[in-house]
Amino acid sequence: MTDALRITTEDRAMWLRQQLDSLPNLSGDYGSQDWRAAWEARRAATQALAARIRELPDKPTVREAHDKTTIRMCGISSSSTTGLVGACQNWLRAHSTRSAR
User: Fold this and answer.
1) Quick one: CA dihedral 100, 82, 68, 49, positive or negative?
2) Per-domain residue ranges of the chain
3) Contacts of 60 (CB under 8 A, 6+ apart)
4) Rounded-to-integer distance, Cα 13 and Cα 65, Å
5) For 42-58, what is each residue's pLDDT tens digit?
6) Per residue in 79-91, pLDDT tens?
7) 24: buried, middle or exposed (CB in 10 Å: 19+, 13-18, 0-12)?
8) Which residue, of 4, 18, 51, 60, has the greatest Cβ tally within 10 A?
9) CA–CA gap between residue 4 and residue 21 (Å, rounded)
């Protein structure tokens, strides 16, 4: 792997961590009006994150299906049955594992 690619991948990992950290948290009692509002805000922010990922210059892919979400960027692919946030967290773990080699 070239140094330029490694830097790009490291930068992407840092960017993705920042994006995940900026997502709204769920708050309030489950099912309450406050919780539903927080869930809607988080869902909208997650959909916006998927759009931002797809718009990156190297054209990563995000595929969301009823049973799993898959993300592929910088040569690393990951998936999750819990949605985009889980797929991004798994991507970060895969990146960390790959970087440690």
Assistant:
1) negative
2) 3-100
3) 53, 54, 71, 72, 73, 74
4) 24
5) 999 999 999 999 999 88
6) 999 999 999 999 9
7) middle
8) 60
9) 26
Beta strands in 1-101 (DSSP E): 61-64, 69-73, 76-80
State the number of CA atoms in the 13 A half-sphere of 27 facing the CB.
6
Q: What's the start-to-end Cα distance of the chain, in Å? A: 11
Name residue 43's amino acid. Answer: R
List CB contacts of 75: < 8 A, sequence separation 6 or more.
5, 9
Q: What is the pTM of this model?
A: 0.86
Residue ranges in the chain modelled with pLDDT below 50: 1-2, 5
The residues, any chain, with a CB within 8 Å of residue 86's CB and separated by 6 or more, are 69, 80
Best CA proximity match to 85, nearest among 40, 55, 46:
46
DSSP class of 82? S
- Tell me if 82 sits within 8 A of 68, measured CB to CB: no
